[in-house]
Amino acid sequence: MAHDLLVVTDEVYEHLVYDREHIPLATIDGMRERIVSVSSAGKTFSFTGWKVGWVTSTPELVNAVRTAKQFLTFVSSGPFQYAVAQALGMPGSYYAGIANDLRVKRDLLAGGLKEIGFEVYQPDGTYFITTDVAALGERDGVEFCLNLPEKAGVVAIPSAVFYDDREAGRTQVRFAFCKREEVLQEALRRLAVLAR
Questions:
Q1: Domain ranges of the chain
Q2: Crossing angle of helices 181-191/92-116, nearest 10°?
Q3: 7-90: what fold?
Q4: pLDDT tens-digit profile of 8-57?
Q5: CA-CA 20 to 30 A from 2: which of 24, 97, 110, 156?
Q6: Where are the beta strands (DSSP E) in the chain?
Q7: 93-194, which class in CATH?
């Protein structure tokens, strides 16, 4: 390779892909020796609070990560690591089932938000839907999210908090769809008060 590239990839959503096939960068010719893939139980197994993750790579690169990690934290979720190790042995049908379930929920929430008047950016993966509230006449996503619980009894996250240039994400907010369908339907019913 001309630039002797080393790549760190975030694979936490690898099993939560809906309309396309996930292709890990490590599977591309010539990349296996140049990749450190980082993943976690947080998304796939809904263990977000456990903070159990892992890296895969060559033995040399995993050793380098382990060496750096020992200076960052002493121990992380020791007892939960056994549960995650057990979960990683789940059959392929488990992962397909999660993706199918979340695809249905994504489509339910995305369709409902569009009907209300949100501009919706349909995700191919993850369990968050990003929307633009400018179509509802809103100018600021942070203010919108701060007022939303009182207006509709629903919460959303302003996307600007994820931007270095907050102005670029000023009117964008995201909603989580990793909820029971009846919860999503109730949220849409409540959000309907925002329709013009």
A1: 7-90, 93-194
A2: 10
A3: Aspartate Aminotransferase; domain 2 (3.40.640)
A4: 999 989 988 998 889 999 999 988 899 999 999 988 888 777 788 899 99
A5: 24
A6: 7-10, 35-40, 53-56, 119-121, 128-132, 157-158, 172-176
A7: alpha beta
